[in-house]
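@channel sequence for tomorrow's demo:
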Amino acid sequence: MPSPLDLQNLGMSINTLPRFLHTVLSSFRPNFNIPIKKNEIKAIMEIYHTPNKTMNFYIHAVDMESGSFTYLTDKLVQKNIIIKKASLEDKRKTTLNLSPFGKEIAQQLMEQLNAHFYSLLKDLEDEDLQDLKNALRVLDAIYSKIT
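structure tokens (generated this afternoon):
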């Protein structure tokens, strides 16, 4: 069992994650025929990786306020990128999925993000790249356990 001091220090270190994400995404310029904003990219990619979840799930996943996320999803519906449906389990809730066009956009985003990551990380030593891959795998595994 970790001590409270260990967890406190971990809490201070975890601030690196949003800074890392901000650094990566702030310099990312997707190349599409339609304008796509950073929060739209985050929503599209979250829906791509975890489809058919409720609006509330995605609001927390992309760390947005409810009203802002609703506005964002309405814009993505207008762009024919996502589809909103009443939840099968609870008709009061709305689930989100990518449209066929949205899936194409998500796949292109993945390709462009991978190219962007490569340009950011290409000068790192192999050992540093392996450490980063391992750290991301560990984070993903821990995230699965706590969600």
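heads up for whoever presents: DSSP finds seven helices and three strands in the chain.
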